[in-house]
Amino acid sequence: MSGPGREDVERAAVALEGVAHRTPLFRSRTLDRLLRAEVVFKGEHLQRGGAFKFRGAWYALSRLDADARARGVVSWSSGNHAGGLALAGRLLSVPVTVVMPHDAPTSKRAAVEGYGATVVESEAVRREEVGMELARRKGWTPIPPYDHDDIIAGQGTAAAELLEQVDGLDLLLTPVGGGGLLAGSALAASAYPSVEVVGVEPAVADDAARSLQQGRIVVLDRVPDTIADGLRTRFLGQRNFAILRRLGVRVVTVREEDILRALRWLWWRMKLVVEPSAAVPLAALLSGALAVEGRRVGVILSGGNVDPPTLLPRLLQAEGDEHLPSG
Amino acid sequence: MSGPGREDVERAAVALEGVAHRTPLFRSRTLDRLLRAEVVFKGEHLQRGGAFKFRGAWYALSRLDADARARGVVSWSSGNHAGGLALAGRLLSVPVTVVMPHDAPTSKRAAVEGYGATVVESEAVRREEVGMELARRKGWTPIPPYDHDDIIAGQGTAAAELLEQVDGLDLLLTPVGGGGLLAGSALAASAYPSVEVVGVEPAVADDAARSLQQGRIVVLDRVPDTIADGLRTRFLGQRNFAILRRLGVRVVTVREEDILRALRWLWWRMKLVVEPSAAVPLAALLSGALAVEGRRVGVILSGGNVDPPTLLPRLLQAEGDEHLPSG
């Protein structure tokens, strides 16, 4: 297994031109002053389907031959991969089935069905097994959420764009769950030797940091209970892990309260509706887990799909003074 | 009183270059499909100080001579004008005093003080009187929130930018409270004969619509109780009214529930943290109060300063399905 390289990210970028949005950048003077750094956020929450996941999903479907497209695909995800794949399936006329846990938020399920995909319910821990069994029985192509060459290459196009949009980045940060976005970003950044790539994950879901330390994929006992619902994965993908090791990517962890503080900063100061997972890299900057003084930092805001009835009460509970305007 | 013309907006735009942000534009495919129109939003919620108000405030201060700047200025506002003026004062080293009502939200007051301005408390209805009396006694220059030539010219620069950024607009919408943004926008658009300018206000604060119908400034009995807290003015400014009449500007009204629906659309579908006042023009589109099929429409998102403890519970109460992602 050699896995995808940076030329695969370049190919994916060409394929996605005119399909995925070239998402805009956001800055905050106040943040830059506070951190004595230049931080540029790439707004993938404004991507189609509300998250970077559309990139990999569409690219993976676009690479299937006519026969496989006609038969259809199957995946498992309760979040943005499900939505991105369902949207990509609609655009490319590929039938999509997604295995979701019984207790997936109604809003996520409704979104997937709204794009015309079929939802199959299963227990959360058996999702992949159920999906692979459906693939075998029905002749559907499995499109896993992150452990897949085309998915990794597609996700890398967000970082590739950011690196084109901003000169002289020193550091590139993304959240890490299964490692699709982080591995793809590392491939994209490997064309820029001076750019360091760092993944950030919740401390309660620190399998990626431990995996890289121990040199083997660490599997969490249970689905981690983090507010960053996009990062509730128990282990890195094998392809993703291999890329992260090969390219020397570092992963740091942040506490739940730091994620909430970063989320409030992005909402109230920067006026961006992003999901908690997207706030995880900023949490590393605000908490000091990563020192960035004097550096130019790129951050991928991974998505903006929130479930207001779940999230708003937590935002209110944690209310700080970040809603005050600033210069 | 001849009042400002479109050349004053042009002068203000030159003065504000490099000072005010050239704010970005936002689109929604789903909205365009729904309305069968092209709607472009100008993100003044990302303006310095979190609202378009900074433009007029800074421009008005920049026009004072050295003597007047050294003596200082006074105004009255419980909202974005206070914040914009305080920030402009800090940048131009002009002492700023703002008369605010006793019951102004703590967050608004803290913002004004955070910029280094002085807050004087008064009863809400006596604010202007108290401010003018302070101006007389202390030698401070009064900078009213909207009934002022330079303020109107400065606010018009947001529309001037939008008209430069988007070719072929048919219609330009802004919220209307005291009429600073609407009158300034009408002046800016008077350079483009094919652009119609329409103001939108809450039905419970319909003084602007009635004033234009009756040909005289209608004064509301009391401060209107609308969720759009930036539009709780009781009457149009005289200069503003004269400009709106002269340029044939129309004003339409929207219900509170339509404002909330538009607000949810902007937050959950477009991922933009805007304040309720900024959602008022979109409310006119979603409710059908303004038919725009086949037209290219520009909307100024006036600001993004919200008080989360007040607003989030109302957003939750009114929860619809706008948080579902879309294509």
Mind explaining what this structure looks like?
2 copies of one chain form a homodimer. Chain A is α/β, with parallel strands linked by helices. Helix content of chain A is 44%, strand content 15%. In chain A, strand 4, helix 6 and strand 5 form a beta-alpha-beta unit. The longest helix of chain A has 17 residues. The relative contact order of chain A is 0.16.
N-to-C SSE series of chain A?
Answer: HEHEHHEHEHEHEHEHEHHEHHEH
- What is the chains' assembly state? homodimer
Give the tally of structural domains of chain A.
2
What Rg of chain A is obtained from the alpha carbons, in whole angstroms?
18 Å
Shape of chain A: globular
Q: What is the CATH topology descriptor of the largest domain in chain A? A: Rossmann fold
Largest inter-chain contact set: A-B, 40 and 40 residues
Shape-level CATH architecture of the largest domain in chain A: 3-Layer(aba) Sandwich
Mean pLDDT of chain A: 95
Q: What is the class of the largest domain in chain A in the CATH system? A: Alpha Beta
The helix/strand class of chain A is alpha/beta
Which strand order does the major sheet of chain A show? 1-2-10-7-8-9
Number of helices of chain A: 14
- Runs of chain A in which pLDDT lies below 50 for 5 or more consecutive residues are none
Q: How would you sum up the major sheet of chain A?
A: 6 strands, mixed
Helix content of chain A: 40-55%
Distance between the amino and carboxyl termini of chain A: 51 Å
Residues in β-strands, percent of chain A? 5-15%
Strands of chain A, total number:
10
